[in-house]
């Protein structure tokens, strides 16, 4: 397995902000991240090589392994614990298909559907899904709960799950933990080793192309899962696994791999490398400070989050932001903005000017 050099926190926030071609007024990293110049250049070069007939499957596989190792370093696990995929729902679906018949899964109410629908789809096997308020998640676990699955940061509201309480409750009840870090990785430190499994799609805060997702898992939980998406890329020897009839899967997390969309991984490599080189606690403080400043200007309570949302059932505030040339989003009857590396105090001022003319 290829290993990556340990991250060095060698890029400052100011240097990182200069790596983007745009960002002013872009308050939507929680919807779709922005690529750096390095990612744009890498994808252009790959497309040109493909057009010249110089694309090489073996070289793509090398890229994938470097990205796998880089992501492992980013979230504090070893590469053998990282599987790759393309979508959150596909990876969650593999876990859902492995829930024992008749078992109980507990989810937070209002979580993103890719972490909800795969489990609801198992009702035909008697799998019971109990949805509770996010704040009640830890207290809702009991000895009958096989799995608790949740997003570390809620997509619609930006609320953070109380992972310490959830982990303590899960240990007491013997419940497995599955955490979606898609709305967390990239703007705050994430330790994937704290959970039995995690899922992360990297096209938001990490700024990678859509189609690059990661699944981390420990050996105990892995023994309970079925590699229902197994294909040639999940083979112990990828290039010896292109044809049947026999199946010899990888013995580590790679047995859960989904065949990668190669060009997306070319763009993901510089994206993951950038965030490995940043102090993510510093990134968090930067983003949270901007979010708190917006809350102050809107007379909202500070929430200490990079995603700020508020009730906007008629979409009036979102329309104001859009009319002012800002890119924001609306989810679940709420206006939603996000602050990231390419944002600063001027973006806060622009948003406040649009909302409080």
Automatic annotation (TrEMBL):
Keywords tagged on the record: Aminotransferase, Transferase
Aminotransferase class V domain residues: 87-299
Protein's UniProt name: Aminotransferase class V-fold PLP-dependent enzyme
One Gene Ontology molecular-function label: transaminase activity
Gene3D superfamilies: Aspartate Aminotransferase, domain 1, Type I PLP-dependent aspartate aminotransferase-like (Major domain)
Naturally occurring in which organism (per UniProt): Cryobacterium ruanii
């Amino acid at each position: 397995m290829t290993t990556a050099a340990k991250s060095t926190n060698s890029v400052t926030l100011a240097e990182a902000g200069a790596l983007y071609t745009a960002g002013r007024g872009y308050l939507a990293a929680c919807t779709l991240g922005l690529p750096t110049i390095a990612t744009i250049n890498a994808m252009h070069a790959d497309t040109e090589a493909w057009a010249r007939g110089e694309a090489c499957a073996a070289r793509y596989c090398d890229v994938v392994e470097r990205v796998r190792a880089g992501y492992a370093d980013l979230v504090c696990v070893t590469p053998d614990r990282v599987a790759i995929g393309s979508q959150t729902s596909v990876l969650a679906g593999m876990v859902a298909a492995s829930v024992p018949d008749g078992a109980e899964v507990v989810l937070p109410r209002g979580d993103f559907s890719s972490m909800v629908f795969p489990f609801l789809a198992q009702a035909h096997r008697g799998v019971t899904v109990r949805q509770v308020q996010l704040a009640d998640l830890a207290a809702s676990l009991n000895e009958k709960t096989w799995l608790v699955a949740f997003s570390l940061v809620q997509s619609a509201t930006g609320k953070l799950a109380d992972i310490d309480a959830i982990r303590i409750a899960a240990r007491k009840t013997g419940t497995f933990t599955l955490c979606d870090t898609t709305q967390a990785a990239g703007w705050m430190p994430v330790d994937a080793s704290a959970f039995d499994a995690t899922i992360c799609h990297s096209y938001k805060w990490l700024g990678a192309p859509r189609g690059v997702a990661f699944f981390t898992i420990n050996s105990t939980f892995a023994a309970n899962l079925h590699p229902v998406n197994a294909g040639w890329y999940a083979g112990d020897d990828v290039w010896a696994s292109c044809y049947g009839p026999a199946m010899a899967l990888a013995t580590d997390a790679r047995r859960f791999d989904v065949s990668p969309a190669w060009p997306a991984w070319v763009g993901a490599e510089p994206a993951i490398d950038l965030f490995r080189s940043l102090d993510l606690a510093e990134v968090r403080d930067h983003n949270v400070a901007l979010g708190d400043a917006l809350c102050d200007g809107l007379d909202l309570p500070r929430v200490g989050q990079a995603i700020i949302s508020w009730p906007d059932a008629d979409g009036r505030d979102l329309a104001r932001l859009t009319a002012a040339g800002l890119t924001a989003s609306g989810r679940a009857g709420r206006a939603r903005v996000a602050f990231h590396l390419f944002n600063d105090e001027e973006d806060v001022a622009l948003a406040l000017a649009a909302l409080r003319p």
